[in-house]
Amino acid sequence: MNILVTGGAGFIGGNFVYFQREKHPEDRVVCLDALTYAGNLSTLGSLLDDPMFRFVKGDIADRELVRALFAEEKFDIVVNFAAESHVDRSLENPELFLKSNILGTQVLMDACREFGVGRYHQVSTDEVYGDLPLDRPDLFFTEETPIHTSSPYSASKASADLLVLAYHRTFGLPVSITRCSNNYGPYHFPEKLIPLMITRALADEPLPVYGTGENVRDWLFVKDHCSAIDLVMRKGRVGEIYNVGGHNERTNLDVVKTVLAVLGKPESLITYVADRPGHDRRYAIDPTKIHNELGWLPETRFEEGIKSTVEWYLENREWWENILNGDYKNDYERLYNGGGRLGGTK
Ligand code: NAD
Ligand code: DAU
Predict the structure, then answer these.
(1) Residue 204 designated active-site
(2) What is the pLDDT of residues 25-72, one digit of tens each?
């Protein structure tokens, strides 16, 4: 098979390309990625010399480029990871999120229709369901939970999901969607909670915890997300949504303290800063459907996953130091120091 992976130079897409090449060496993988600030060719490393892998730099919203690539490659499966993915950035520039996340999805699906692609898989997020209250641990997101978004990011992802379902119903496009909880693991861009805390703690810099730190996220090791997507895009029912998560809820404060304990750094580095506007309180996935229908279960316990993630950051300093020393440095100053998030502790 010939598989298009968009956004494969990013965190989850990169891990997914490695996963595909290892699990299905007979399948060819083409990666289309615009190499935005979040995309990094060094993530793909040795794959760039793999004859069963091809990298193409380009924007999924660029209709001509996408058409030409589909005409040339005749894909069997398209899996779309490409997106603007950071909630805080979506507060600063919503338009970019609408363009990549919604229009980009439409352009890809139009090409799938035109060139008769056998499966279009959309990588979505639990954020489309909004949030759950902190005092109702009995509540979980199921595939039937109504869409109820909080940020321009989650609104753009939900809009894309609705378009995907519409293309299935109206045009018969063979689609599937996965909605996953928070991922962590290697190649995670150091603006997101876990890698931000690891890299800042290593430099003995203050660790900015938004609000009270009581918000809850449901963490899944990235490889477990990859195995879920692989199953759904090959064996999942067409037109269906599958939630992906491993029942691993933690408060942000717990996560930061765990990272500090693994690194042997003091909790005095924790600094409470102004809260994220519209901050979702709790995410919690009910993964019963993907388990019952496809037998999927996560393999990595959080305690092991977080240790191996910290080790990866210790062993791959060059990967993240290059990011921290590049353009990202200015982004961080503008988004957080300039915007006051780090300026004033609470
Ligand atoms: P990321 O920001 O690390 O990577 C995104 C990649 O997409 C980058 O390589 C970037 O260059 C590329 N990209 C962005 N816009 C593009 C465009 N217009 N055309 C082509 N390439 C473009 O993101 P991630 O954390 O790996 O997330 C990947 C996908 O998974 C996203 O769709 C996200 O919504 C979803 N998701 C993420 C998580 C998570 O915890 N990170 C959880 C659930 C779902
Ligand atoms: O749930 C899936 C989503 O998880 C994905 O769809 C998104 O692409 C991904 O970025 C992630 O979204 P979050 O907003 O949950 O992730 P983030 O790492 O930005 O923040 C996790 C929690 O930590 C959140 O409650 C905000 C908090 N936080 C984050 C940062 C960056 C802090 O307290 N301090 C910080 O500096």
Answers:
(1) no
(2) 999 999 999 999 999 999 999 899 999 999 999 999 999 999 999 999
